[in-house]
């Protein structure tokens, strides 16, 4: 707290908000040094899937830490990485034959962009333009910011961001999006990157599977690579393992991070179709894929991911998702009728509601007031502007979900104009 030299992410230190010190966590609970139990209603920023400190994942990390802690991954391999790759191949779309490891969602996106450009360059048809969907978020590194929504978050860095083709977010039946994509695809762009079904940081904005299928069809017809950023939507958030499977869409390149270790360790993968790998396959060393970071495929993180994959294989995760989805709908039905609630929406386990406000957007003046009300009530919720969303770990029980609904109701009534 005071006296700490830590510079926190997405934190305005000048506002002087308290920074709680957490000592341990279990399931949906965070325990603070001053003796409070806080309900983690946003899965510690969308990463914790099954619950904090899942015993199987904890045990896998313990065992791996004592066996092999870290290994150079350029030209070397280890059993946990092989297990993860084999597990992903068995559960992800069969067309995605290659697994490239990295360590964060942002990096998995950078890798995806480099793979796309490498594909075109190494097959003798250089292309570099990237198409993006309005209001998207793909991470905070320069490349990931370039393909994300421009705004207050990245205004100072704008001169460094590369130019992209921005496709409008669907309104009505989505004709606006499809027509713009069709037109933009005629200029032979390298790739179109999308968050399937839910634009997370953009405000939990949702669009139907049929639209994703139509966008994918346009890309396929124009030979434009489709990159699915399932960093947030993957691992069950939308009710299925991947959001894109609800649209029957298999992307050319798939980004996974956050829930890949159940939310326990930093790890990411970028999966690609065989022809994208083969474009880099050569006896010419100049065509190898020039990307790595020190902790690529860290064995301890891979052991956690392998345990997560085993949980998916052996436990009734999909049943839990269906059950949580129904309970999230009940929560929304209750909150939808409150005065000041403008709209509610849900996709799988993600529930969101917008508050009526004069000043919309991420910098809405409502957000800090809501944040402190939630903090005082010992519920971790972090509104996106005037959008409140609930994205809990899948193990959340009735009592905690009811408590979250109570606290949101209290806060909505309190901030009412
Ligand atoms: C969180 C997020 C990222 C960035 O992941 P990090 O691990 O935070 O770098 C990228 N894309 C989407 C859709 C995300 O939600």
TrEMBL record:
Lineage top rank: taxon: Bacteria
Pathway: Cofactor biosynthesis; biotin biosynthesis; 7,8-diaminononanoate from 8-amino-7-oxononanoate (SAM route): step 1/1
Binding site for pyridoxal 5'-phosphate: 105-106, 229, 293-294
Enzyme Commission number, as recorded: 2.6.1.62
Predominant localisation class: cytoplasm
Function: Catalyzes the transfer of the alpha-amino group from S-adenosyl-L-methionine (SAM) to 7-keto-8-aminopelargonic acid (KAPA) to form 7,8-diaminopelargonic acid (DAPA). It is the only aminotransferase known to utilize SAM as an amino donor.
Subunit structure: Homodimer.
Entry-linked NCBIfam families: bioA, PRK05964.1
The protein's name in its UniProt record: Adenosylmethionine-8-amino-7-oxononanoate aminotransferase
UniProt source species: Novosphingobium fuchskuhlense
């Amino acid at each position: 707290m005071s006296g700490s030299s830590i510079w926190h992410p997405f934190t305005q230190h000048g506002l002087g908000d308290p920074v709680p010190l957490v000592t341990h966590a279990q399931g949906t609970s965070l325990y603070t040094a001053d003796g409070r139990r806080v309900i983690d209603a946003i899965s510690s920023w969308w990463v914790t899937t099954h619950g904090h400190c899942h015993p199987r994942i904890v045990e896998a990390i313990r065992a791996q830490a004592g066996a092999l802690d870290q290994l150079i991954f350029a030209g070397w391999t280890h059993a946990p990485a092989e297990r993860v790759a084999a597990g992903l191949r068995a559960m992800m779309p069969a067309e995605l034959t290659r697994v490239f490891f990295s360590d964060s969602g942002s990096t998995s996106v950078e890798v995806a962009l480099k793979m796309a450009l490498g594909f075109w360059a190494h097959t003798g048809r250089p292309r570099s333009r990237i198409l993006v969907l309005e209001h998207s978020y793909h991470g905070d590194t320069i490349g990931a910011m370039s393909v994300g929504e421009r705004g207050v978050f990245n205004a100072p860095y704008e001169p460094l961001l590369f130019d992209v083709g921005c496709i409008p977010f669907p309104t009505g039946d989505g004709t606006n999006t499809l027509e713009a994509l069709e037109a933009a695809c005629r200029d032979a762009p390298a790739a179109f990157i999308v968050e399937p079904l839910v634009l997370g940081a953009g405000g939990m904005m949702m669009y139907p599977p049929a639209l994703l299928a139509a966008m994918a069809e346009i890309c396929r017809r124009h030979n434009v690579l489709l990159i699915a950023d399932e960093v947030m939507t993957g691992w069950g958030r939308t009710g299925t393992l991947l959001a894109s499977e609800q649209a029957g869409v298999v992307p050319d390149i798939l980004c996974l991070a956050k829930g890949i270790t159940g939310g326990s360790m930093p790890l990411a993968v970028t999966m690609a179709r065989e022809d994208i790998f083969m474009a880099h396959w050569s006896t010419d060393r100049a065509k190898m894929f020039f990307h790595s970071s020190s902790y690529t495929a860290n064995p301890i993180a891979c052991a956690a991911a392998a345990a997560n994959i085993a949980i998916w294989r052996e436990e009734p995760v999909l049943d839990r998702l269906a059950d949580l989805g129904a309970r999230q709908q009940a929560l929304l039905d209750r909150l939808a009728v409150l005065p000041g609630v403008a709209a509610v929406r849900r996709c799988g386990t993600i529930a969101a509601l917008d508050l009526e406000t004069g000043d919309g957007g991420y910098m809405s003046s409502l957000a800090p007031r809501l944040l402190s009300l939630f903090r005082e009530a010992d519920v971790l919720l972090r509104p996106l502007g005037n959008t409140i969303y609930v994205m809990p770990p899948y193990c959340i029980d009735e009592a905690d979900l009811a408590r979250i609904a109570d606290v949101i109701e209290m806060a909505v009534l309190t901030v009412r104009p």
